[in-house]
Amino acid sequence: MAKVWTDEENEFLEQHAGKMTIPTLAKRISEEFGNNRTVAGVQARLKRLGITNLLQETGRMTMNELSVLIGADHKAIRRWIENGWLPYVKRKVVFKRQFYLIKATSFWEFAEKHKDQVNFLRIEPNSIAPEPEWVEAERKKEYYDTPKRQSKLWDKEQDELLISMKKAGYSIKEISERLKRTVSSVHSRKKMLTDKGFILPDQITLRWTDKEIQLFYKLEQEGYTDKQIACELGREEYHIRRKRFSLRKSGKYKGAKQKWEHGKVS
Q: Of 91, 93, 174, 251, most Cβ neighbours within 10 A?
């Protein structure tokens, strides 16, 4: 039986996420608390706890996070690093991948010295804290100096920001808010960029095994919520709802939850 995560395990994740690879986290938690946590389970639990924002957890941003926050291509940020303009450190975050991590203060020091490299109008106020007082003056200056667009045509920079945000896991709604475009416009542009190979197609859900389905039924019988089931199976919550729907549709559902329609149990 899959066990509910304990407060001690949650605290361990909060203290060590970003300092160890996820396989190491899974191994250490299993050894210290005896609950046999898997890599998929740890990944799901980190997401559930919201331990995904390195800026919040460590005071540093990855290149991809900074790219999204300032509306610039990550290649430009890499160029700043390679030129020695933008200080960074490296850290293992997941598996064996190494990330360039950048302090907010280091970015602002760079931006003050290289104002020609940054479009301050694209940076949401206080999205990179602490924001220096001089930034708002630069933001206003660019607002009045930049000609207003006469059309809503997509440009290269907006395409690059859409691609970066999609890779970072942002939703279409979040991207539309960031780009100040409609959801339908972002959907259409994403489809075009996907068709041209600039964005990978949405990941196909992994096929469910018989063992997973039986565990899914068992957890339902024991009163687990969909979120808890998803966590234990290392899946998203919508995967659980979708699987239940498909099982019902095919007449194979043997779970504990009844179907609700129009406020009534069917």
A: 93
CA distance 9 to 81: 36
| Residue range 80-123, pLDDT digits in tens | 998 899 998 776 544 445 667 888 899 999 999 998 888 888 88
Domain boundaries of the chain, sorted by first residue:
7-52, 154-201, 203-251
Q: Which of 93, 167, 81 is nearest to 117 (CA)?
A: 81
Q: Are 203 and 189 in contact (CB under 8 A)?
A: no
> In terms of pTM, does the model score above 0.70?
no
pLDDT at residue number 106: 92
Residue 263 has pLDDT above 50, yes or no: no
Supply the mean pLDDT for the chain.
77
Residue range 203-251 forms a domain whose CATH class is mainly alpha
Angle at 262 between CA 261 and CA 265, to 5 degrees: 45
Reported as type and span, the H/E element at residue 256 is none
Pairing of strands 60-62, 264-265: unpaired
Identify the CATH assignment for 154-201 out of 1.10.10, 1.10.287, 2.60.40, 3.90.25: 1.10.10
